[in-house]
Amino acid sequence: MIQVCLNGPRSAADHAAVPMSPGAAAEAAARAVAAGAVDVHVHPKTPCGQDTLSARAVAETVTAVRAAVPGVLVGVTTGAWAEADPERRVARVRAWTVLPDHASVNWHEPGAEEVAAALLERGVGVEAGIWSGTDGARRFLGSPLGPRVLRVLAEVTDTGPDTARDTARSLLGALGAAHGRPVLLHGEDGGAWPVLRLALELGLDTRIGLEDVLLLPDGRPATSNADLVAAARAQADAR
Q1: What are the tens digits of pLDDT across the range 44-70?
Q2: Residues 206, 198: Cα–Cα separation, whole Å
Q3: d(CA 73, CA 126)
Q4: pTM, full prediction
């Protein structure tokens, strides 16, 4: 499974093709799915371009993307950078009027358990974000919610092209059986493509998109999310 991560905390200043509005996210998702993505992860934005968990932004973004890619699962972030206060983050989730299919919860962040519980109570699948270089794996393995998550999002924050694969293996080792949940392994920036190739080698789900990397495997600038997905699909098909 290849998930497309459309924008993340990035903005148009990082790349002209980063979708900042619901309409742009919908168009980017449609093209990425046509290129081979089968799942969508998107960060709803405020009018000034900041990540947000507001009910209105989530509703507008999820509705627009769903209309563009009917039948494809659509997920959002609950990252602490979008709402720093854990209690307010939970309140935001409980105020959503349109529910995404899934949402990522970074397990090293304060309030992760409470946010995940709120999502599960509302029937939203949880992607347990476990970042390398944090205590996320330890906390997740000790969580009673672990067996209930949709998948584990193993996030390699090591951006070194020559070291990211080893960091990814260490992260997978720390996760062990991961409560028996499926694992989606991905990297970022210089580590994105080495980690994606490792995920393919290990038969794990993975993701790609302008949230994670702006360059194609050969170092050329990507023109779009679809461009990145097509490159990932080509690597998967070549195996």
Answers
A1: 999 999 999 999 999 999 999 999 999
A2: 9
A3: 12
A4: 0.95
